[in-house]
Amino acid sequence: MTRKLVVAAIGGNHVDKAAELAKQFGEEFTAKRGWILMTGGKPKESESKVKDAALFGCKKAHGLMVSILPKKKGEPGKVHCKPIIGERRVELVTDLTNYGRDPITGAAADIVVVFDGADGTLVELAYAALKNRPIVFLSSSISSSRTSLRDRAQSQSNREKVIKKLTEANEAYGSLIPTSEDNLMAALDSCLQDNRFPEVNSISQAITQINQLSQHIKLYGDTHFRGMPSDAKIKGRFEKLILGLLQMTLSENRVRSSACFSNVP
After folding, report:
1. How far is CA 13 from the centre of its chain?
2. Rounded to two decimals, what is the model's pTM?
3. Measuring CA to CA, how many Å separate 153 from each of 16, 97, 159, 177, 186?
4. Contact of 97 with 172, CB cutoff 8 Å
């Protein structure tokens, strides 16, 4: 069965113009395309968080959304995956920390759009590069996302911190994406240096790149989501919910939304 394209938007918090750009991207992303937007946040109006702002824009435009969420701090966490009725959104709550969750937001999408960010964005980008996902850097009017992230990754004072976060991610998700911190760092460095990955400075250019890249992606069967180390069944439920999400229409109401997910246990 043919599925919809899943595009992840990754980026940081408190980065000038990045959240504003992400919100605009989320709105324009959905227009007449039917793509699914995945981030590590929820659709909230935010002046600082790319992950929330992108979904907020997408929600305003009645788009299809997936949230990949970490556990709450100080709690053991429990994995669950559910539809958010009335939002055209699937929410996967993991039992992982922020960095432990990042391999999913980095590697589970078909294409990854990169806004400016910090260490979490670098972890997500490392996994996207490791799994050879097509990557598009989307820069604001005041900074280059690729250059900013490259400077952060290569900074002598910050590099050990990035490696530590990659270690945390690998320890949390390594059973499903086996690798090493050295491999992740090498993939990240290569990606940030490789001009084959386009960098654009407008949303229309980003969407053009996504359109072009999507022509080479086979959208058959399941998504790239590998599941959860602690829950073998969550992969199947996630895929069923994605199919239910795709059955929604722009004119949905609560009753119709419920019907779309009625066959998902």
Report:
1. 15
2. 0.92
3. 19, 21, 6, 22, 11
4. yes
* The pair of three-digit structure tokens given for residue 217, joined into one six-digit string: 């992606």
User: CA 67, 4, 215 angle in degrees (round to 5)?
Assistant: 125
Provide the total of helices (H) and of strands (E) in the chain, helices listed first.
10, 8
| φ, ψ (nearest 5 deg) of residue 152 | -70, -40
Q: What is the pLDDT of residues 4-49, one digit of tens each?
A: 999 999 999 988 889 999 999 999 987 667 899 999 999 999 889 9
Look up the CATH number of domain 6-252.
3.40.50.450
CA 222, distance to chain mean position in Å, is 16
Cα–Cα distance measured from residue 124 to residue 107, given in angstroms and rounded to the nearest whole number: 7
Residue-by-residue DSSP string for 88-125 = TEEEEE-SS-HHHHHHHHHHSSSEEEE-S--HHHHHHH
Cα distance between residue 15 and residue 138, in whole Å: 13
